[in-house]
What we know:
Elements: E1 2-6, H1 8-11, E2 19-20, H2 25-28, E3 31-32, H3 39-46, E4 53-58, E5 67-71, E6 78-82, E7 86-87, E8 91-98, E9 102-103
Antiparallel strand pairs: 1-4, 2-7, 3-6, 4-8, 5-6, 8-9
Amino acid sequence: xxxxxxxxxxxxxxxxAPAYKSETLDVETFIHCSTQxxxxxxxxxxxxxxxxxxLIHIDESKLTSPLIYEPSPHSTExxxxxxxxxxxxxxxxxxxxxxxxxxx
Length: 104
């Protein structure tokens, strides 16, 4: 399982679409994702002060776009990157991340 963090208002335009495209897909050619153990660090580094976010749970075995684990330029970790839209069949759950990074 991999995960993608998104603002609820951005997600709303894809809620019933056949695939999801993040804001970074056109610019960087991939969608940033995380493993479960990386979520807290990503929230801390990139979403400090944001109170409500969604966590998209993605079953990587159902992805139709290529998934590549690549090194981050800012750490020694490798992160999952999806090179194309995330098909709706691969999205198996969506949960809220509330203030303080608590997943609900």
